[in-house]
Write a structure and sequence with these properties.
single chain; alpha/beta; Mannitol-specific EII, Chain A; Helix Hairpins; 4-stranded mixed sheet; 10 strands; about 45% helix; binds zinc ion
Length: about 290
């Protein structure tokens, strides 16, 4: 099996694609749709792009099939727009937070709305991966939330993406899955258990009542999972939640690295075993 990963996350200076005039530091929208509308119009007005209507339709349609809230209060709605020369992004900050049906159910506070020409799919993936990685750093995220103005937010993004180094990449990569995990018989059953476990743990965070009941369910599920797998799950859940993520279009939705197509195909064709991302070691399933 090829160990080579296509590097889509080489450093990218985010501010190359963001204009200061396209940053709104204090949005007051009270719905996801209003926020997306405001940002899309801003981007198209300021950058003098054509086709704001179809782009907005695409962005809203995408959100109804699946939220682009990637967790930790960040969302990355996007549209492919023919006729654009290169990717462009508008940034909106909502101090009060917005319900976005994000993966971790947390309200969204920073939106990176991205439009890109169809030929620039790789730039888009690279951009999203850079945003996700930069803001996975709690200090960076806090600075972005605390920044006083659009100028400050711009400067922070510029500095952060310029100094974003390989060291960070290597820290993230340090965890490797125990090779024995892949050989666990009946891995599919364990994967289903992990999915339920992850759901219950999210419920535990979000529920006000019935915590004891959820905890009991968690203990039940945990007693059924193979210990080696559970151990790896716990490490992931602690260091880089979520521990179990889908792979979409060959891209791991945990680390946003593109995985070799051949590997993804093997994962798809082998549901009897449990698989982990070659890059971030999260448990994966192919959708
Ligand atoms: Zn991954």
């Amino acid at each position: 099996m090829s160990r080579r990963l296509e590097r889509i996350t080489d450093r990218m200076i985010l501010t190359k694609y963001i204009q200061k005039s396209c940053i709104l530091p204090a949005m007051t929208a009270t719905s996801k749709a209003d926020a997306l509308k405001e940002l899309t119009h801003l981007l198209f007005d300021k950058r003098k792009f054509d086709g704001v209507g179809p782009a907005l339709d695409q962005i809203l349609a995408r959100e109804t099939t699946e939220s682009t809230g990637i967790g930790r209060g960040i969302a990355v709605p996007h549209a492919r727009v023919t006729g654009m020369k290169q990717l462009a992004c508008a940034v909106g900050r909502i101090p009060t937070g917005l319900d976005f049906k994000a993966v971790d159910r947390l309200p969204v506070q920073i939106i990176f709305l991205i439009c890109y020409p169809p030929s620039e799919q790789t730039s888009y993936l690279n951009f999203v991966a850079t945003v996700a990685k930069l803001l996975s750093d709690k200090t960076q995220l806090k600075s972005m939330l605390d920044a006083q103005s659009a100028d400050d937010m711009f400067d922070l993004l510029e500095a952060a993406s310029s100094t974003f180094t390989e060291t960070h990449e290597q820290n993230v990569k340090k965890m490797k899955a125990d090779p024995a995990i892949k050989k666990t018989p009946d891995g599919h059953a364990d994967l289903m258990l992990l999915a339920r476990l992850q759901l219950c743990q999210e419920m535990l965070v979000n529920t006000r009542t019935g915590k004891a009941e959820v905890k009991e369910r968690i203990d039940n599920i945990r007693s059924l999972v193979e210990p080696r797998i559970l151990n790896h799950y716990d490490k992931l859940a602690k260091s880089r939640p979520p521990a179990l993520v889908p792979v979409e279009g060959d891209t791991c939705q945990g680390c946003f690295m593109r995985l070799p197509s051949k590997f993804v195909q093997q994962v798809r064709q082998d549901p009897a075993h449990i698989h982990t991302c070659l890059n971030c070691a999260r448990f994966i399933y192919v959708v």
